Amino acid sequence: MSARDPLADLRRIAFLLERANEATYRVRAFRSAAKTLGALPAAEVAERARTGKLTELSGVGDVTARCVAESLAGEEPVYLRRLLATEGTDLDEAAAKLRDALRGDCHTHSDWSDGGSPIEEMALAAVELGHEYMVLTDHSPRLTVARGLTAERLRKQLDHVAAVNEALPKGFRLLTGIEVDILADGSLDQDEKLLARLDVVVGSVHSGLNDDRAKMTRRMLTAIANPHLDILGHCTGRMVSSRPAGVTGPGDRGHRARTRKESEFDADAVFAACAEHDVAVEINSRPERQDPPKRLIRLALEAGCRFAIDTDAHAPGQLDWQRFGCERAALCGVPAKRVVNTWTADRLVKWTAGRS
Ligand SMILES: [Zn+2]
Ligand SMILES: [Zn+2]
Prior knowledge:
The protein has 356 residues and is of the alpha/beta class. Helix content is 44%, strand content 10%. It has helices at residues 6-19, 24-38, 42-51, 62-72, 78-86, 93-101, 119-128, 151-167, 192-197, 213-225, 267-277, 294-303, 322-331, 345-355, and strands at 104-108, 133-136, 173-181, 200-204, 231-232, 280-284, 307-310. A 7-stranded parallel beta sheet has the order 1-2-3-4-5-6-7. Strand 5, helix 11 and strand 6 form a beta-alpha-beta unit.
């Protein structure tokens, strides 16, 4: 028997490729091979590896078959070793410290809305990263392009999350949540009672991003004053670069990969309101968003706001993008004690419950 788990090695490779922004098809090759092999008895996988018949299975190619064979022989697959060797983590000390202080992620998506992976896989990746919790925040109904969840589907998801939690390692919690649209009038796009039931509510503007300054400011202030809102998501809506390679695909929101300028609002008033209502300002880690820009992070810091450093991950490997947010937060001098996801799950949930 091998001391290594070939499926774990395949998933690890997929994760590292995703994190490195590699093309989606490369990532998928490893994930689908893991899926195919996971459905077979281990003895059959070993027998096929021994007789060179792994590639007869759909979803298993030469490269993935070689990894499995190496892994079954008890060796670290060469492919994996190379990925690990070239992996660059250049975080300076402050950013690394902040990253170490994070215990969870408050903004993530699954294939229930526009993410590419099932809830279970996202949660398991969070476990592997050492997170203590992950908040699942799929989209709300009006965001139809992202398959936003109706109240009925969200209720179903809550039952599903409860079941998934049962199966996850003890000590890790999958928390319930939503990325709710902030509608044109500042109201939140989901049933009030349902919002009250969720552990964490992230609110974001996804439409009318070109609203004039006064209208956008009013809209945001109304949302921030809503007692259900806990975290203000990617507040400017900007896109600084086209979507990174490997991020487009069926699990992603089409090819709207253009850059987009910041929406305009009175940042002093918005951050003052966040501080007053104790709404955390999200530092969105996605490389194409980098939202808010650093000058606004500094402004929010001065206003006394709390922050949440989140990935907005739409795939498991993206859960490791927190380091990008940490780099920007560290550059702006954001202290760990101002960041709500440095808290334990208990403290986080107590905070959100106390607010709504
Ligand atoms: Zn969003
Ligand atoms: Zn999101």
